[in-house]
Amino acid sequence: MTVKERAKKEPQGLVGRAFAFAREAHKGQERRSGEPYFNHPLAAAETLNDWHLDDATVAAALLHDTVEDTGVPLEKIEKEFGAEVAFLVDGVTKLGRIKYRGAEDKAENLRKMVLAISEDLRVVLIKLSDRLHNMQTLDALPAAKQKRVALETDEIYAPLAYRLGMHDLSGELQDLAFPYLHPEEYRWLLGAAKEQYEARREYLEKMKPRVKKLLEERGIAPLAIEVRAKRYASLYKKLLKRDMDLGRIYDLVAMRIIVRDVAECYAALGVIHEEWPPVPRRIKDYIAMPKPNGYRSLHTTVIGPDAMTIEFQIRTKAMHDEDEHGIAAHWLYEERRKGVRAPSGPRLAKELEWVQQLKRWQERFTDGGGSPEEFLESMKVDFFKDRIFAVTPHGDVVDLPVGSTPIDFAYHVHSAIGDSASGAKVNGAITPLDRRLKSGDVVEIITQKGKKPSEDWLRFVATSLARDHIRSVLRGKGAFSRVAKMPTHAEITIGVDPHLGLIENISGTIARQGIGIASFHTDAGGDGHFRFYRIEVSVAARSKLDKLSLRLRKIKGVKSVKYRLA
Ligand code: MN
Predict the structure, then answer these.
(1) What is the pTM of this model?
(2) What is the set of domains in the chain, with CATH numbers?
């Protein structure tokens, strides 16, 4: 349902009331293009609605320009829509005041932006949807302004979207900025590539029903088949690396197949390869080996009818959503899990490390007299690069460097969680602890009481925080195990009703507790059966023996367990 439909259906809901309020507030206002101003906040709200954000965010998007452009006081927004919506609107209003290009007198606004985004990631998402629509309607603005907005988009917002894992949005923002930033190159590209684009697109559109039929005949019902043209901005970047030779670009227009699960991905690939011969070395399995940014799909280029090459991209719906929506996919999954819209999230970005970093920079530039240009420059470089954003099951965002693993994640949530981590689920599936996380991953750490960090973890952790914690615990344990070099000896006496496999069962249980067996005696009972096992063991601590006794008692055939320290 669109925002418009939702407002109509439920005029008294939060979204419905914000819809009516914003339309009224912008009444009589026009955008430069001459269309009613309200179209703009509505477009931003529709984007967020598509991303399945919560009602407060959609409402705030509808209201995002009312304070700045219609003079509605923020207090009124708060009174009508509550503190949360007012907070989001205020954040976006502040972000709207920053202007990239870093003139001295704008520094204060930059700082406001920093503070605003440090509080809630949803502010950033509203800003991105706002910026998307502004870029889509940029041609109505005067040339000088176009250039400034395009530059800001290309250098600040598109990289920000990328870092949040919103690759589709990031690419679209760059594409929209491209003609304004590189008009000559754009014209050249249009001239050189447009015909090819059109021809390729037409060719693939014709192929679509055939591919669909082919898959269905083999029992694969694709959820969607899309014809995707490569974006101009990324085509241009690729051409620069390929001597501007369009003939060497295989994925000018690609066919994207979305299926239900990973098995169907490989099955679909097989079906396509049976029908059309693949081009050697053009098969890429980004499912088994995801790209560093987390991208997953199967790619292949085949020789299609009329000896034309076709690039296929095959992926599951989840891979697709992740690639398109990144961190916003979190809300998508949240909704799916609960069957309802996600509740308003906590202040997601509160703990984000990069936000803390920004604050430190801000202080440095405020106190140290650094110029706003330097500030923006440093922000551009460090702010957006090499970070990923993973999410706890509660929706808290954890900011980590690229290459981080569930163990890094665990230590960033809490050192005790790191110390007692025994396993991890990523997006609901059990995952090895050394798996590299990617933006938007929902990570759940499975803990086990009394569990200690493993030395092995030092091999793969990416953050110094995790490494330092693990080392310090291991050092503590090291001291402990020096004591344990003089282990406690004990004799365990187990009364049994013997059966086949009982001895293996008992010795296995002892071994799994990490306890060494020094000797194993069996004492025969009067009727020829073995009635008692006497086992000499060495353990590091007496508490281990209590635990072991409990475990042993649970074994079928064990009647009694006693131990005495030697
Ligand atoms: Mn706006």
Answers:
(1) 0.57
(2) 3-178 (1.10.3210.10), 183-322 (3.30.460.10), 334-384 (no CATH), 397-477 (3.10.20.30), 486-566 (3.30.70.260)
